[in-house]
Amino acid sequence: MKKLITLVMAAAVIGLATSVGNAAVLLQDNFDDGNYNGWTVLGSSVVTATNGYLEGTRDAANTNDIVEQALSSSTAKFYCEFSMRCGVDSQGNDEFNSGMIWLRNSTTNVGYSVKLDGAANEIYLGTCATADSFDTITYTLNANTWYNFTWVYDPNDTSSGSNGSMYLYAGHGTGGTLLSDGFDPGAAVTSAFNECVFFDKGTGVTGPPPQNQHYALDNLYIGDVVPEPATMALLMLGLPLALRRRRK
Q1: Which among 75, 203, 102 has a CA at the least distance from the CA of 144?
Q2: Whether 99 contacts 200, CB under 8 Å
Q3: Is 202 helix (H, G, I), strand (E, B) or coil?
Q4: How far apart are CA 135 and CA 132, in angstroms?
Q5: Which of 121, 176, 186, 122 is nearest to 151 (CA)?
Q6: First to last CA, the chain
Q7: Are 200 and 87 in contact (CB under 8 A)?
Q8: Contact present, 98 and 75 (Cβ < 8 Å)
Q9: Cβ 182 vs Cβ 160: under 8 Å
């Protein structure tokens, strides 16, 4: 009987793993190769990835460093993990002391965004559109410090509203602290996105680090499937059984 249960559990886990494995990876980059191949630098932005993460480097007041990468999504649904380092507040202006990820549609120029504002100790979760809509999250953000987040949007989850639900978790994976219990992005954003944009709204001070520390991006993953907690729990529970069965 125990052998039968083990076999059933192993088969279920292998089936679930196959299902998760079929998820499309829209974009994945940890910049460990020291470059930002595939990313397009916009305007007069100056960026580097030589330290193993993507960051702006331009030392000029009230300037932005912006990069983008094209990707293909057939749906508005996404699951995103990322790490972001906060810059140093040298301007006294929170608008120019922030970092943002923006998943946008290049035709309509609207999309979904997460913005870290180190000067105000706030995170803005929502949309970039003709009229921005966002949820303000109070969160301590220290200069020159890395933070991990998981950002999820499911248009079919109507628990927050008719336009779907957006969530933000501290840490990598949906098992971390839930920072936003569901945000309806509104009707302004309805189409699939085809670009990932990173804004470093810089610190604009000249001098050696950390005085000129900019916002930085690392460990970026964007997929088109939102993992179900129950599925992930079953995978974690049953994977050792499947592996042990294979070794025998």
Answers
A1: 203
A2: yes
A3: coil
A4: 10
A5: 176
A6: 18
A7: yes
A8: no
A9: yes
Residue range 64-87, pLDDT digits in tens: 778 999 987 777 889 999 999 987
177: which strand partners? 170
Q: How many CB atoms lie within 10 A of CB 123?
A: 24
Q: Cα(78)–Cα(90) distance, rounded to whole angstroms?
A: 34
Predicted confidence at residue 86, as pLDDT, reads 86
Contact 64, 17 (CB under 8 A): no
CA triple 225-230-232, angle to 5 deg: 60
Distance, in Å, from the CA atom of 186 to the CA atom of 183, rounded to the nearest integer, reads 9
Residue range 84-133, pLDDT digits in tens: 998 765 544 444 578 899 998 888 888 899 999 887 889 999 888 655 78
| Token couple for 3 | 């052998």
- Taking the complete model, does pTM exceed 0.85, yes or no? no
What is 12-60 written as a DSSP string? HHHHHHHHHHTS-EEEEE--TTSS-TT-EE-TT--EE-TTSSEEE----
Half-sphere exposure of 76 (CA within 13 A, CB side): 23
* Residue 133 CA: distances (Å) to CA of 47, 80, 191, 225: 29, 19, 16, 24
Is omega for the bond preceding 227 within 30 degrees of 0, making it cis?
A: no
Mean pLDDT of the chain, nearest integer: 77
CB 116 within 8 A of CB 215: yes
The strands making up 133-138's β-sheet, listed across from edge to edge, are 40-41, 65-70, 195-200, 98-105, 110-117, 122-128, 133-138
Residue 154 pLDDT exceeds 70:
yes
Residue type, 5: I
